[in-house]
Fold:
Amino acid sequence: MSDQQYSFFESVQKSFDKAAKFTKWETGLLEQIKACNAVYQMRFPVKRDDGSIEVIEAYRVQHSQHKTPCKGGIRFSEEVNQDEVMALAALMTYKCAIVNVPFGGAKGGIKVNPRKYSEFELQKITRRYTAELIRKNFIGPGTDVPAPDYGTGEREMAWIVDTYESMRPGEIDGQACVTGKPITQGGVRGRKEATGLGVFYGVREVCNMPDVMEKQGLTVGVEGKTVVVQGLGNVGYHSAKYFRENGSKVVCIAEFEGAIYNENGLNEDEVFLHRKKSGSILNFTGAKNLAKSSDALELECDILIPAALENVIHGGNAHNVKAKIIGEAANGPLTPEADDILAKKGTLIIPDMYLNAGGVTVSYFEWLKNLSHVRYGRMEKRFTENMNKLILSTMEDMTGKTVTKEERSYIEHGPNEVDLVYSGLEETMIDATHEIVNCWKANPQIPDMRTAAYVVAINKVGTAYAELGIFP
Structure:
């Protein structure tokens, strides 16, 4: 069967089956872990601005309830279908397990192109979708907690929480029914850049492993490495930003209209502003246009970051991919056939199911913030600053030396919310990276990092089911 014949969900299941044989669990339990527990398919009418009525197709899939609540984004896209939503929900289960976030996997999708609807129409669609979820108990702080995904953002999450709280008045933890909200509506600082920053932390940790880098013929660290980023959405933009700020050279950025290349490096901010003004990333000053967006995937580079949609690297183009490391920032950017081709070439693939877990990790922090009803850092920031000032002044008195103004500011600084969020995310990504790599090294039969990641995830979910005593 060629990769063109695999659906997205089948691709996820194929990767699961590849890893399952390296685990100890019996077939029945593995089948339960694989299966989607609940699929809610809905149709509802919405009145357009011109007075016409349109029937909207939408989904919410809860893949696993081995831990509750379920967690997963809602995407607005014309490509939304049940298979895709099931695949993304399954990936969320494994993703949460790997990064030790205590959620089951879920996903939602509404089959619309948001560019073709007014803000008022999108608000009506989002609020009606939320009402449908409430009716069937498919949303709630302890049941199922959505988040932004492709085509959605803070605005839509604010509509969701407002609808939820209006239909469930007096629910004290109502704000925790959804994450990715604006700060004023109970959101957490650092959520917007979380996925891109998590991608950077994960790739950086792999690049800091001397034995892994030696195998790829690369030097240790991200500094000086050439990077190609496909997609200038939220994830692609922030991935490019953190690589550039930490000494990497982003030589190419691609979007659906084409790609631009500059061997001396690109600044994602300047490219973003150029696109905002001209409507395209093409014809950017100092950069060369590439005819097709997909051409970017085949450029010579150290690190390739596909940060757009699934299945962009497949059996038809995988032979031409020259990157030594592929960091899957998007969900499912490689097909199973591409995986096999690139593995034979020795390409290191850092898998999506944990690499883009920054979003759900920081969503977890937001959920905890909403349940605790207190901002991170509020209790300890001033205390920490006062203690740091006292320690510093004591050391200056003892040594007779003083630090510079910049050093003083850095040492005395007490953590605010975004500092703590970044710190928690960095810790999460470092731990997950080492857990996967150690699993891979411990069993020489495991062929690649993706399979190792699935093994880690399956073992954690299997243990949770076994400890619940569901299978006596």
Summary: Residues 417-442 form the longest helix (26 residues). The mean pLDDT is 92.
